[in-house]
């Protein structure tokens, strides 16, 4: 058997087991709640920074638009006069239209302005109820002609700088997700130190220069669900890796096992000294040929060969020399027979040749004659020149009779012994 194949097989099994162990250990390590929790928080912090930057940009753009409107000081002054009831609303409108091409639209935007209230996260607008103009605490508000007031806060721009906003310019999208909210605060709260328990996490980041902050809250339910989702994802990927390792290892092991079985099977049918087929192979090959002979109606023959004078060679020159002669006999037999025929060594100095198909009995005799002549030539080993002979018994199958493998081998063996008893170094066909 090929030792390297065995070694590869064992190594592959070890790699297979170690791969599963490593993937399992890696998965267990990665499943740590603290590690997954940390990743969730890191990702959340990153999302918050992106949303903060986007919100800050919108605030900046809105301030520019607000400034563009409020910088129209002349319109602002006229509106202030109207507020003090020094002029009428129509006069304001007429004045703005005479000074600016877009005065009418500016005027309309100012009257229907919106106000962003970051504290309550509400877009302020005209109140639903009219406010009496004589109430002192409402003097800081601007009223329209119907008595409704337009809220003007000082958190972003003071009243002296601003009378109203352009409606479309200040619709700022909020950072709102299932895990977050927006409000105003005066301090930045960082993530609390992580501990072994799952709890809420929060962070606030400054938004521009308006003194407001974005606040995001990572609640316990979201954190738990996110951890579970990520663990499931990791588990699925780990199982896929294990599955791939199992399939690849299984196919490799299956292939190596098949090769090992083939080698084991081949080694059980091969003579290790001469590399010829052995007795077991003789029985299997003869049985197969016998079955075909009965089906297709052809004749085949077995030549049972026993080497004459081999034992004295072993006794005189040693088993090493005897083994060399057996190898040389094997080569001569292979050179003599047809490619369709098979040579077997069935033990000691005994060989069998399976003649796969013959037309006449005389054809078997011709092959036996060639073998006898080839084996009778001297064998030169180092300085030695050794002469031996061969006794050959022949059995012929009969497709018209029910034959067995044992019967055919026994017939050839009996014919070989008849040659031995009648002087050796010859061949003979079995006859009853």
TrEMBL record:
The chain crosses the membrane at residues 9-31, 231-253. Residues 298-432 form the GGDEF domain. One of its GO terms (molecular function) is catalytic activity. Coiled coil: none annotated. It comes from the Bacteria. PROSITE patterns: GGDEF. Keywords: Membrane, Transmembrane, Transmembrane helix. Gene3D superfamilies: 3.30.70.270. This is GGDEF domain-containing protein. It comes from Oceanispirochaeta crateris.
């Amino acid at each position: 058997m090929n030792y390297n194949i065995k070694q590869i097989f064992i190594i592959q099994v070890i790699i297979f087991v170690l791969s599963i162990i490593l993937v399992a250990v890696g998965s267990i390590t990665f499943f740590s709640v603290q590690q997954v929790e940390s990743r969730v928080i890191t990702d959340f912090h990153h999302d918050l920074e992106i949303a903060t930057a986007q919100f800050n940009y919108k605030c900046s753009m809105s301030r520019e638009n607000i400034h563009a409107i409020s910088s129209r000081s002349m319109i602002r002054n006229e509106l202030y006069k109207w507020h003090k009831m020094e002029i009428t609303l129509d006069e304001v409108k007429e004045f703005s239209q005479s000074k600016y091409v877009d005065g009418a639209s500016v005027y309309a935007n100012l009257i229907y302005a919106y106000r962003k209230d970051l504290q309550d996260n509400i877009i302020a607008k005209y109140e639903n109820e009219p406010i009496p103009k004589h109430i002192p605490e409402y003097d800081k508000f601007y009223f329209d002609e119907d008595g409704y007031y337009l809220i003007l806060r000082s958190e972003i721009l003071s009243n002296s700088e601003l009378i109203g906003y352009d409606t479309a310019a200040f619709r700022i999208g909020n950072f709102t997700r299932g895990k977050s909210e927006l409000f105003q605060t005066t301090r930045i709260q960082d993530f609390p130190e992580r501990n072994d328990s799952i709890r809420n996490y929060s962070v606030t980041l400054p938004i521009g220069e308006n003194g407001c902050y974005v606040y995001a809250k990572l609640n316990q339910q979201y954190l738990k669900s996110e951890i579970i989702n990520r663990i499931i994802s990791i588990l699925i990927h780990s199982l896929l890796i294990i599955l791939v390792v199992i399939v690849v290892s299984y196919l490799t092991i299956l292939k190596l096992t098949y090769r090992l079985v083939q080698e084991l099977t081949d080694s059980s049918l091969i003579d290790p000294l001469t590399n010829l087929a052995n007795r077991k192979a003789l029985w299997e090959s003869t049985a197969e040929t016998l079955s075909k002979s009965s089906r297709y109606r052809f004749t085949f023959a077995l030549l049972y060969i026993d080497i004459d004078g081999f034992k004295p060679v072993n006794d005189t020159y040693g088993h090493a020399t005897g083994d060399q002669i057996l190898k040389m006999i094997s080569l001569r037999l292979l050179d003599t027979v047809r490619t369709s025929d098979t040579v077997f060594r069935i033990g000691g100095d005994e060989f069998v040749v399976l003649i796969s198909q013959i037309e006449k009995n005389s054809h078997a005799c011709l092959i036996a004659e060639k073998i006898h002549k080839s084996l009778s030539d001297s064998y030169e080993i180092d300085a030695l020149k050794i002469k031996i002979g061969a006794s050959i018994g022949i059995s012929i199958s009969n497709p018209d009779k029910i034959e067995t493998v044992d019967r055919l081998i026994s017939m050839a063996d009996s014919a070989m012994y008849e040659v031995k008893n009648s002087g050796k170094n010859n061949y003979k066909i079995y006859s009853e």
